[in-house]
Amino acid sequence: MKIAILSRDGTLYSCKRLKEAGESRGHQIDIIDPLSCYMNINCSASSVHYRGRQLDKYEAVIPRIGSAITFYGTAVLRQFEMLGSFPLNESVAITRAKDKLRSMQLLGRAGIDLPITGFAHSPDDTADLIALVGGAPLVVKLVEGTQGLGVVLAETRQAAESVIDAFRCLNANILVQEYIREANGSDIRCLVVGKKVVAAIERQAKPGEFRSNLHRGGTASKVTITAQEKEMAIRAAQTLGLDVAGVDILRAARGPLVMEVNASPGLEGVETTTGLDIAGMMIDYIEHRAKPGFKLKSGG
């Protein structure tokens, strides 16, 4: 099987592991920079070109598209979809997940428990926005943030007003979210492949930090999740239409809450912590799903 990995950096751990897992199963794996692709959009001769040549058909495509290139990266993936390639996460689903507001609206509509969240651009009454989520302490997030960037904990009402007003001056869309104190700076990352949670780790923020992201110096350990947390992670991924997802769950006093759903979860933290071959599971899923005549969930 010919499989393309769409990624700007083939030296990243996740890309190397996916390539290794695919090749060990006898597949041809090519890593393609989506920004170097250009497309012929034509009813009779649609194609994808890359570095001066037209690409042959790939049976499957694995998108590893960062937030900075979501628009063009998903456009390239959509072209592969139109040419009949099976996508491990459809372009429409990736777009849903990358939009934090849209994803939370969809999760909330599906009845999935979330932290109390407000959304604003230029609130006329900052105090009312703060009250909406239960007051300080609270978390303020830039909608376009990733890996813990653009996320601020405001511990007092005055600090919350200052942060919100500062983001407003940047002409930015912001999420204001209740702070789950009892989580103690930790969350659960559930790795969903298909209709299964194949791995779960607990991420703990470093001392003095509330963001548990491993990129921010957090640590990870194995964790056993409950049946409720497992069902919640699978439902969250399916609500957004994702085949593969990293679902981040907070353990609150009132029960588990979905904090975020990531369409391109990193594999290094999960694999090194659990010892599981997550990349191999993703390739196995492609082998099962990438069959002639498959239909996109979104219809294209």
How would you characterize the overall build of this protein?
This protein has helices spanning 13-24, 70-82, 91-98, 100-109, 126-132, 157-169, 227-239, 268-274, 278-289; strands at 2-6, 28-32, 37-40, 47-50, 53-54, 60-63, 86-87, 117-120, 138-142, 151-154, 174-178, 186-193, 196-204, 219-222, 244-252, 255-262. The chain has nine helices and 16 strands. The strands form four sheets. The chain has a five-stranded antiparallel beta sheet, with helices on both faces. A four-stranded parallel beta sheet has the order 2-1-6-7, with helices on both faces. With 300 residues, it is α+β, with helices and mostly antiparallel strands. 43% of the residues are buried. The chain is 32% helix and 27% strand.
SSE sequence, one letter per element: EHEEEEEHEHHEHEEHEEEEHEEHH
Structural class: alpha+beta
Largest sheet: 5 strands, antiparallel
Low-confidence stretches: none
The number of strands is: 16
Percent of residues in helices: 25-40%
Cα Rg: 20 Å
Mean pLDDT across every amino acid position: 89
| Proportion of beta-strand residues | 25-35%
Strands side by side in the biggest sheet: 14-13-12-15-16
Alpha-carbon distance between the two ends? 22 Å
Shape: globular
State the helix count: 9
Write the layout of secondary structure elements.
Elements: E1 2-6, H1 13-24, E2 28-32, E3 37-40, E4 47-50, E5 53-54, E6 60-63, H2 70-82, E7 86-87, H3 91-98, H4 100-109, E8 117-120, H5 126-132, E9 138-142, E10 151-154, H6 157-169, E11 174-178, E12 186-193, E13 196-204, E14 219-222, H7 227-239, E15 244-252, E16 255-262, H8 268-274, H9 278-289
Parallel strand pairs: 1-2, 1-6, 6-7
Antiparallel strand pairs: 3-4, 4-5, 8-11, 9-10, 9-11, 12-13, 12-15, 13-14, 15-16
Helix pairs in contact: 1-9, 2-3
